[in-house]
Amino acid sequence: MSATPQRHRRNRRLTFAAIAVTAGAAAMVAAALPAGAASGGGAAKSRTVDVQMLSFNDFHGTLEPPQGSSGTVSERQADGTTKAIPAGGVEYLATSLREARKGHEYSVTAAAGDMIGGSPMLSGLFHDEPTVEALNKLKLDVSSVGNHEFDEGKAELRRMSYGGCHPVDGCFEPGKEFTGAEFKYLAANVTDEKTKRPMLNPTFIWQKGDVKIGFIGVTLEGTPDVVTADGVKGLKFGDEVETINKYAAELNKQGVKSIVALIHEGGLPANGAYNYDCDAPGAGAGISGAIVDIAKNVDPKVDALVTGHTHQAYACNIPDPAGNPRMVTSAASYGRLFTDTTLTYDRQTKDIVRTAALAPKPVNKIVSRNQPKAPDMTELITRWNTLAAPVASAPQGYISADIAGRGSEAPEKPLGDLIADAQLEATAPAAKGGAQLAIMNPGGIRADLAYKAAGDEGDGVVTYGESYTVQPFNNLMNVVDLTGAQLITALQQQVSGPVNGASPKILQVSKGFTYTLDMTKTGADRIVVDSVKLNGAAIDPAKTYRVAMNEFLAGGGDGFTVLKEHKNKLVGVPDLEAFNAYLAKSTQAAPIAPPAADRITVVK
């Protein structure tokens, strides 16, 4: 039974007394400020106070510890080698955050988007209500939206914010209505095309005693490129820098001088280890990507940038346009890390002190599984797992070893090949589209398939819950006509254009489709056109081919604009159904082996 969504939000008042900083820190601040600026009188409040900011990003509803390589973080060792450390799971994240807050009277917790969407089955099956409940228990104060917050459209995002049972599936627990987020979701650069107003709050002011910190939340301007058209229908996504600068000025007019931007856009550190120093040999030297240009242009009024989207870990100093030190952070993804930042707040100027001596130096910390689980999170997981169990535990097929997907850093991923093969098989019959090949977007592969059993199903068994975690979006399969020329253009758009030129997105391809990717070249030239073949025959630019893909790609998602030019579309089964049907052909005696991932020849 469905219920009408009702607006609901619990406002938490923060009214505690301030604490003093050490005499040494006060002296450093006094030395950094104009003569006579420091307050006098031994009984008076200290001029400055340290505010702890805990932050994370790209949680994606990962309540249980993620499996495979998605459930580890890479730690750089003293000898230069790296070590994989198991991490993540909301039971451990809760313990980590609660321990980190101890001894900090001033502590705020913030996030940089993608808290929901692309979620494992435990959360996704229930439209991410379990995750919002968990985030409330974590005492999250504020989060920007990310692109995945729009997976189910703006109406569903508002329901996540304000509560109410799902309009189709109704209330999941008898006698309980979903109450929505107790934290503030911010969407400063997402406006309604009709009203021209932000669809959610653009800013949030966190206050405790006489300490005020303003937060501005934005998602990447390119969100429409990475979300289905239905998900962003009726919305306009503005420039990140212009939006942040606009609202920083507005916060200043309100008397808020300390400002943090929560930005669902990120960077790419030169090393994947969470403890890599991205400020060596100089400030910000070890990071690239979209966030660098954003950081260099965001107004100096903004004191720190908490970022996300790229699922990378970094804590870099990228000076603001005035040359002042400013930290830019990201805590990887899936709750495997959190960032602990100290913001030194000056009560007289009401601003964050960002001198070279007192610039906040954030630290990314591992959410270790070698610590007690938070009992309330264990209860939450158990409760929702009980509701999901009849569906989640059903076996779908068998594998002979780990099959790397999200955790693979290679352009061609074994699990990507497997998914593409499943999609081709589901759409190859004439009555189902007559597909000759299938292509799959890499971002739609949300996990690995792990050989080791997660529960009592047995090693090598793939359950519905595990297959759902790999393919959670339930996109419908499309089979379309593309010319050979359009197909080649699509391959070139993997490595060129405004969306993928700086950060390539390599499509996963079905068996029989092969080509060479020459990374020694640049842009579209990286695709060796003469090497593109289907079943050994060169692709004919003038010939028409039947190509299977999910509806996201068919709509031009991920920058593949040429795919929107298709003709003769036939809509098929959901991608998860195609994947599970392929898995169902396997048996315990004849499990699926990891594909060789040899369809794309990469020249480096």
From TrEMBL:
Calcineurin-like phosphoesterase domain span: 57-312
Signal peptide bounds: 1-37
PROSITE patterns assigned: TAT
MF term (GO), any: nucleotide binding
Family from the record: Belongs to the 5'-nucleotidase family.
Stretches for region Disordered: 60-84
GO biological process: nucleotide catabolic process
Cited Pfam families: 5_nucleotid_C (PF02872), Metallophos (PF00149)
UniProt source species: Streptomyces vinaceus
Domain 5'-Nucleotidase C-terminal: from-to ranges: 401-565
Protein name: Bifunctional metallophosphatase/5'-nucleotidase
Keywords annotated in UniProt: Hydrolase, Nucleotide-binding, Signal
One GO cellular component term noted in the UniProt record for this chain: outer membrane-bounded periplasmic space
